[in-house]
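TASK: fixed-backbone design
INPUT:
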């Protein structure tokens, strides 16, 4: 006769109450959101990094229009190409507050605005990963604490305290802490990796804007 497995997710789910199930559903939702953000941001970041070498092609073009065209072909995420596009169109502010600025001040304002927009775009979603990575272990711990409390309450109500009756439910409750770590670890690793690549992209954008400022200022 096969030995009975006293430690299983199925047994924990059967013995759990509404709060235990709610914690499990929250962890599942956090995992789904985390992986959606990880995959979408990884694809977007890969396209941005793939377009970075096109900055050299831009400066190797015979004129500005050809450089913008070459950069636009490579920059599918339109992170880099908006800087020369907006720099080219910045003149002629007209009867506006921006038009009252000098040409150099208008250029600085436009380039700074585009860098800010690019920063917001490439950093979007990272806050979600950071939040999930920071909170998922505690959500799992909450499930563990509640599961242990629920198990001990059940054993106490039965009036019989035996090690097998306590070890099984307590061991199953510890599964929730493991689930919390399984959700948190990929989110933290992805956040650190994406954040590092984003810093590299922002450094390139800053250098590109400085070079464009020098070009348009002549």
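OUTPUT:
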């Amino acid at each position: 006769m096969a030995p009975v497995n006293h430690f299983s997710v199925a047994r924990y789910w059967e013995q759990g109450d509404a709060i235990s199930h709610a914690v499990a559903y929250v962890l599942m939702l956090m995992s789904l959101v985390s992986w959606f953000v990880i995959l979408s941001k990884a694809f977007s970041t890969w396209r941005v990094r793939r377009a970075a070498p096109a900055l050299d092609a831009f400066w190797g073009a015979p004129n500005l229009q050809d450089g913008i065209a070459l950069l636009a072909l490579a920059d599918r995420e339109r992170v880099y190409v908006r800087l020369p596009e907006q720099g080219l169109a910045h003149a002629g502010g007209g009867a506006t507050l921006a038009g009252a600025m000098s040409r150099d001040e208008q250029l600085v304002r436009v380039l700074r605005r585009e860098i800010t927009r690019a920063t917001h775009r490439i950093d979007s979603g990272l806050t979600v990963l950071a939040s999930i990575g920071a909170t998922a272990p505690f959500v799992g711990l909450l499930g563990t604490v509640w599961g242990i409390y629920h198990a001990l309450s059940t054993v106490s109500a039965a009036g019989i305290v035996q090690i097998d009756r306590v070890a099984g439910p307590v061991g199953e409750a510890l599964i929730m802490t493991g689930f919390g770590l399984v959700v948190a670890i990929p989110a933290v690793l992805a956040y650190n990796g994406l954040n590092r690549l984003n810093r590299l992209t922002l450094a390139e954008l800053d250098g590109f804007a400085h070079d464009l400022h020098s070009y348009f200022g002549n």
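COMMENT: The chain has a mean pLDDT of 84.
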